[in-house]
Fold this protein.
Amino acid sequence: MRLSRHAILAPVPGRDQVLLVQPLTGQAALLEPSNARALEGLAAGGPLPADLPAETLREAGFVVDTDDQDRAFVEAARAEWRTEAAKTPTQLVVVPSFGCNLACTYCYQELFDPAAAGLISPEAVEAFFAYVDRHHGDESPRPYITLFGGEPLRDTPAHHDRIRRFLQGARARRMEVAVVTNGHDLAAFLPLLSEGPVKEVQVTLDGPAALHDRRRPHAGGTGTFDRIVAGIDGLVAAGIPVNLRVVADRENLSSLPELAAFAASHGWLELSSSRFKTQIGRNYELFGCASRQEKGALFDRVELWARYVELAEEYPLLRKFHQPRFHGIGHLADAGELPAPNFDACPAAKKEWAFGPDGGVFGCTATVGHPGHRLGSFFPQDARDDAAIARWQGRSTLTIPGCEDCAVAPVCGGGCGAIAWREHGTPVAPDCRPVAALYGLGARFYGLGA
């Protein structure tokens, strides 16, 4: 008998406990450190402590007697993963323009060709929907469109025309539309968005007014916070779901309690999760460091979430403002079991495609507009680079060197293909995630076993 090679032992920071997780069976348990060490020593013939029943450990998949049992867990988990992946709708990310009316200090798209800032033409919008009909027309569940940028919602007649065309085209195909916007001109688009079909609108606030305005000013130098807040209030009043995003680094993370208090004062935190949710995105280098982004201000993943856990313990309102996933520990706290394993964390060219205003086709939000990641075109003609597409579609922990035998592969999923490309020159390489450390932080944040 030995510990399963996919069982993960995650020390809980600040507690004399270790979280034992078997992601392939969705089971978890809290152990004393001595018992965790005993499980690690089973392979060398060490004894099993009396308070750890062997049969219970076997049933949960924490321990195995043979390699065949481990392989059986993997095969069953892969089958579950494929079933769940088939239920996931495809996201079609469209960039109407890479032009933007803000001058954010950390914009990764400033590295792109400024000539790409033009607005998509009506003919290209028509060609996009023709492409969708050819390549995604019979998909079930129905795909959805995400309008991205640059900034898709700019208050000009041409931008209103294009957004109307996308909404009408989606409506005719029984598809929903999500919008990712900086929120500056959001109020002007509320009548159009209220006609639907809108899945959600993602808007970014990076902290209280003064801090946000320093990080995300208008291109003309003025503040943007008050206009964005008015737009969010308008979405709430119209019943349009809001996804409030914070881009976090060392400069603004400590201001989250103040932002949470502001959100509470507007009644946003009293809304159901179907109407208002939050996300915290780590500020990082995607293709390079933005000219006004200080590299020393960036967190790694463990630092970010360790500090967030500490802040939430000091300011309990943060628990209402945002509940991190911690690779499924949030789901464990709610449902009593972990979510299905994930052997592929990169949806590019599989469950996500992206389309540029010049007619280019790309694999995902992270790569759209980057000339090195172009996979074809939808306008002026439909052309696909099958070899390049195959590289992205073939990427998973089943094909990435080093992932096949990695204990945390069913949780990490191989990470982001775009980051792997930046680091290794190919998407078929790992972007490793600190799964055990995040599991431990999740157990502390959610008070598992407390």
